[in-house]
Design brief:
It contains twelve helices and 13 strands. It is α/β, with parallel strands linked by helices. It starts with a strand and ends in a 6-residue tail after the last strand.
């Protein structure tokens, strides 16, 4: 069976999704729209897909599912407009720009009963999936420590930072989601320290460019998340899962931007990943393939808005902790 899908938003990630969708065997039709009509028209012509002049035209075009890759502030209205028409949705994270908006969308979607998949692509990466299987199988024993890392090689533009929601909601939320998903556990408490060592525009946006996060899981395991915007060695995303019987490490390959200074240790000849698009290219494709199964009704959403809410609540707790310089329990954040 083949289906027609709509896509709204053809910026960097949206254009990549459009190209992927146009090449998937299960998709016989792609219709795209963007607030910038010329950009959408140009992208459609380049890929040989259909162009819609606006979102209403797109939603009325007979599509079976909608992919949303627009700016965050448009996510709530686009999600609700689609599910109100019975159209399943794939939406890039976050669900909304703030906690109240996220809660409202979650409740709306659950009342509508239409599947929505949120784009946490790490769930579809082979390494993270292997780590999850190792935990579930019991081969690692009981877990005591997890160490997650997301370090960008250089910061986004100032105008992006001012609208991003901050380091924890924009960047760390991926780590918070994957910690829950790999372990099957919930976070009960966080403590955060943040710093600004780079451009002034982070402080101007009341954000930080570097952060150290400590989390307590509900089984007593401890996790740390290191976040940064200035990792000159390259894009560094890893997860270490340490247990009583063994460990699993994600992202430790010859492209990890790590340099050992031990005498005689070989230096990798491979260049570090340039950024998240290159590192997770395969995962981005796999999550859209999974969405086709959601649209077909063959499977439930692998990452629901409520899953996204859980990660967003952790990010909210981190922001409170940073501002107030104290440990924050999950019970303090509305759900």
């Amino acid at each position: 069976m083949t289906v027609g899908l709509g896509l709204v938003g053809v910026g960097r990630i949206g254009a990549a999704h459009a190209e992927t969708l146009a090449g998937l065997p299960g998709v016989d039709r792609v219709v795209i729209a963007d607030a910038d009509r010329d950009r959408a028209r140009t992208t459609a012509a380049k890929l040989g897909v259909e162009f819609a002049s606006d979102i209403e035209t797109l939603l009325a075009s007979g599509i079976a599912g909608l992919v949303i890759a627009t700016a965050t502030d448009s996510h709530p209205s686009l999600i609700t407009a689609a599910v109100d028409r019975g159209i399943p949705v794939f939406c890039e994270k976050p669900v909304a720009a703030d906690l109240a908006g996220t809660l409202a969308v979650v409740r709306h979607v659950e009342r509508a009963g239409v599947p929505v998949q949120i784009g946490f692509q790490r769930r579809f990466d082979a390494g993270y999936r292997a780590a999850r299987e190792a935990v579930a199988s019991g081969e690692l024993g009981w877990l005591h420590t997890l160490r997650a890392t997301t370090l960008d090689p250089f910061p986004p533009p100032a105008q992006y930072i001012s609208r991003s929601g901050g380091l924890f909601r924009d960047c760390g939320v991926h780590d918070f989601d994957i910690l829950r998903w790999v372990t099957g556990r919930e976070v009960t408490e966080v403590f955060v320290l943040g710093a600004n060592r780079g451009e002034r525009f982070f402080a101007d946006a009341d954000d930080v460019d570097t952060a150290a996060v400590v989390l307590r899981m509900d089984d007593g395991a401890l996790a740390t998340v290191s976040l940064g915007r200035y990792n000159g060695a390259g894009y560094d995303v890893r997860l270490e899962v340490l247990g009583s019987r063994g460990n699993a490490v994600v992202g430790l390959d010859d492209r990890a931007p790590l340099r050992s200074v031990e005498p005689g240790y070989p230096v990798s000849a491979s260049a570090a990943y340039a950024g998240f698009m290159e590192r997770f290219r395969g995962a981005y494709t796999e999550e859209l393939i999974a969405f086709l199964d959601v649209v077909a009704g063959a499977t439930e959403s692998p990452c629901t808005p409520r899953d996204a809410l859980a990660a967003f609540r952790i990010a909210e707790a981190c922001e409170v902790s940073r501002r107030e310089r104290r440990a924050v329990g999950s019970a303090e954040i509305p759900d």
